[in-house]
Structures are given as C-alpha cells and as structure tokens.
Amino acid sequence: MLKYRLLHPEVLRALGEAGHGARILIADGNYPLITRSYAGAHRVYLNFAPDLLSVTDVLGVLTTAIPIESAHTMVTDSGEEPPIFEDFRRILPGVDLEPLERHSFYEIARGQDLALAIATGESRTYANIILTIGVVQPATRT
Fold it and tell me: With left for phi above 0 and alpha for psi between -120 and 50, is residue 51 left, alpha or beta?
C-alpha cells in the first residue's frame, strides 16, 4: 500500500510515462472523451456515477503529484467563464487559466501531446481542464 495521496495505478503509470510538456485532460461527465481526445493517450474512466468523482477532486490530487506549468480551460459558447473557474484558481494558485472556446479546446485535447485523458462524473458543465506538466527542478547538492 502506498502512503502517497495518488493511488490509482493507471494514472500513476501514465504520469510516470509522461514528462515535461505532456498534457493531461480532466473531463466532466458530458465530455465526448472517445472522440475528443488523442487516441494514443491513456484513458482512465472515473465516471462511476454523477458527481463521483468530480473534476476538482481529481485536480486536487494531481497537484500533489506533478508540477503544473499551464492550464487550458473551456469557456461557454458565449465566452463567459463557468463558475468552476473559481475552484480551478483556488486549486492552482499561481497558474494562469488559459480559456479557450469549445472547438479550440477539443483541438488541443486531440493533440499528440495528450498523455492522459481522465473521465469524471462531474455534473457541472464546461468543467474541463487540460494541464501541461512542468519541470521538476533538480535537488541542490550540498
């Protein structure tokens, strides 16, 4: 048993294979994961039931495991920010959200840089986020 907060073996494997610049999609329950994510990405289905697990649950755990360089988000068709953006900012302090309209978001999610696509049971709409993995700085030797 791991003492680490992130325990899901498929997610750990995908993160272990990813590196700087690789992307991770965390999708809400309405997201068309099979048609709007890169076919070569690891796909993990955590959408057991509505609101189990949420996008913010998954995001909170991932922040303990990887450095996050940037975050792309999906805005509504009218260009407005959905309410979940407040949660994203709280969970990702110091990371600017880069809002995209829906089809531009899908285009990035279908890109070859997508290493991991996670489906959640999130019921809030436009609750999708693509994270870019940052760099782990080497430890200082003394």
Answer: left
Q: How far apart are CA 17 and CA 114, in angstroms?
A: 12
Whether 10 maps to a domain, the answer reads no
Contact predicate 91/63, CB 8 Å? yes
Contacts for 139 with CB less than 8 Å, ≥ 6 apart? none
- Residue 58's CB is within 10 A of a number of other CB atoms, namely 23
Which single residue is written with the structure tokens 């940037």?
70
Average pLDDT for runs of 10 along the chain of length 142: 86 96 98 97 96 96 96 95 97 97 97 98 97 91 72
Q: Residue 128 sits in a domain of what CATH number?
A: 3.40.1650.10
